[in-house]
Amino acid sequence: MHCLCVLRSTLCCQMPTSTYRMLLQTKAVPVQIIKRDLTAKVKNQKLNQNIRRVDRRNAAYLLRHTTWKDLVELYEIAKPFRKWIFLGTSFMVVSSGIFLIIPRILGKLIDQFDSNTGVQKAEEVFTMKIAKYFKEQPMSLVGLLAIGALATAAKVYCLQIAGVNIVGSLRKMVYSSIIRQDMTFFDKNMVGEIGSRHAADTVIVGYSVSSSLRAGVRAVLVGVGSIGMMLMTSLELSTVSFLTAPIVMGIFKMFGRVQQQCTWQLQEVAADVNQTAIERMANMKTIRMLSAEQQSIDEYCKKGELVLDISKTEALAKGSLIGSFQFTGYSAFSSILFYGSHLINTGHITYGELSSFCLYAVLAAASLSNISGFYNEVMKGLGASSRLLELKNAQPIMNLNSGIKKTDITTSIQFENVSFAYAGRKKTLENISFDIPRGKITAVIGPSGSGKSSIANLMLRLYDPADGRVTVDGVDLRDLNATTWRHAIGTVGQEPVLFTCSIRENILMGTEHPEKVSQYELEEAAQLANALDFIQGFENGFETMVGEHGCKLSGGQKQRIAIARALISKPKIMILDEATSALDATSDYLIRMTLDNLLKNHNLTVLVIAHRLATMQQADQVVYVNRGRIEGQGTFDEMMKIQNSIVEQEARRRGIPMNEQMSRVNTPVARGFSLKF
Ligand SMILES: Nc1ncnc2c1ncn2[C@@H]1O[C@H](COP(=O)(O)OP(=O)(O)OP(=O)(O)O)[C@@H](O)[C@H]1O
């Protein structure tokens, strides 16, 4: 009967605020810790109340969070795999039927061996006939058991395949939806949270669909069948057995709930501990540089202690639950045997019937335990699938594939009175207007945090302006096909981001048709980026794996691969964000050479976020941004005339002699600048 312990641990579901409150009431875990976490959660919710966040309240175990619409949608996702579901269910009916009839036949077989027992009831004639047959042909009983086992194996296989396919489809749909979301979505939701939700919830749904649902349906079939057979075998014995039901339910309610709550909370805390560990391990270089090893260990251990505290409560509840079930189970079983032997003595039942009854009682108990487990798991699965469906159905504001397809510009890109703010932040850009003429280099300069990258973000249409508009040849960027537009732009960021794959895959990332890119084109892009020599120097050339975030390459090598990636599609427009991080002299020189060559290409329209004087000098126009406003705009020479300007400061820093006339000028002389230095 101890198999009635039904609560299974599942992966990483998250704890709802309501559960925190509930646990506070039950005092299942240290109150201070939960209070602290709860306060943090509430604060967090308040901070983000204006932001449409992914709902963190855990819907995993409450059906009310799952709507009929969700169920219909799940059915639609499962539809293509209905062949497997039908086959699996059919095998399940066969195997359950066989294993349900076996105890009855075994009972009759026992009675067959007992010469004192005769057939008493007409309805038992059929079973007795089968029993007689099996007595004469014992191998056929083995054969029947083998058929049952084969049907079980086939059922598991078919339903597993159906489950894996359903979850696979759901996972793909959710992932493609996440990938298509607006940048604002990722600003509002923590990537780790979305990632773990995507991973953990699909595991929960997978477990629920492939395992729990199968076990549950089988448990219902076998449970109902066994109880029916128990009633059929002996009404008196059934009454004794069912008397223990309320006691079992009471025990389950008492300890089961506490254990369940602890399990849920453990999953949340364990996910947090894992996240901390993974983050620290992924950034080992920084940890080492900061000598933060002990701090990381302490942090990990502190969180681990919370796991231990909750685990103790869980273990106590689990132990009490199993112990109580064992006590009740064995008591009930002993009562059946005692009362059963009395019934045999009084001639009410036979030995065979008592044996059958005992087997059915075990089957019924096991099935009932599975049904409660199945209920919890399916509820969790439904809740998790609802959250996944919410992610799947999240609609980005920017449709990536509709709009005018524009791959080049004929006149200019214009910022017209553009104001912009990131979600939950004050305005980053305020009423800025300037032109990026075709075939020219526009350098954006300004202090850190002034909004330079935000200008590039708007030009790439990663975000839309709050006011004003960005136009390309007079067409609002919002009317353009975002994918085609971004394909027309090559981007090299300040901090190159490489993916954990080969150099070839990194360079080809983002090309419209990677399979059509020839080796020659690949080498050409690498050559232009001054990367070919070092790539060919590697044993595996372009197939060299770059490690996590490109950790197996130097900063300069990463930067040059990023440049090659930007050039591979032969873009007409380039956005360059010059690296401010220190590179070694050779890398710095090579990258500068590469960018200089790019800037000399007069067919390119370039927006460069410049940090070097040389780059500013090459620009056709320089735009000075300060605190989100354009405070100066002109040629490099014109900008040099501005006292204390960033250009001048840069020149001084680099020890470049300043033109006398320039140093004397205190006010802007050209283009009616409005400067507020
Ligand atoms: N995704 C974001 N969400 C919220 N605020 C952001 C985001 N990105 C940038 N900001 C804020 O917007 C402001 C402008 O940032 P931006 O990156 O455009 O500056 P920048 O001039 O490029 O700085 P740097 O030269 O240091 O790269 C900063 O105050 C920054 O904190």
Automatic annotation (TrEMBL):
Residues 86-380 form the ABC transmembrane type-1 domain. PROSITE patterns: ABC_TM1F, ABC_TRANSPORTER_1, ABC_TRANSPORTER_2. The keyword Protein biosynthesis does not apply. The keyword Transmembrane applies. Keywords: ATP-binding, Membrane, Nucleotide-binding, Transmembrane, Transmembrane helix, Transport. It is found in: Membrane. SUPFAM superfamilies: ABC transporter transmembrane region, P-loop containing nucleoside triphosphate hydrolases. It is a multi-pass membrane protein. Residues 413-652 form the ABC transporter domain. The chain crosses the membrane at residues 84-106, 141-167, 219-252. SMART domains: AAA. One of its GO terms (biological process) is protein import into mitochondrial matrix. One of its GO terms (molecular function) is ATP hydrolysis activity. One of its GO terms (cellular component) is membrane. Pfam families: ABC_membrane (PF00664), ABC_tran (PF00005). Its main location: membrane. PANTHER family: ATP-BINDING CASSETTE SUB-FAMILY B MEMBER 10, MITOCHONDRIAL, ATP-DEPENDENT PERMEASE MDL1, MITOCHONDRIAL. This is HAlF transporter (PGP related). It comes from Caenorhabditis elegans.
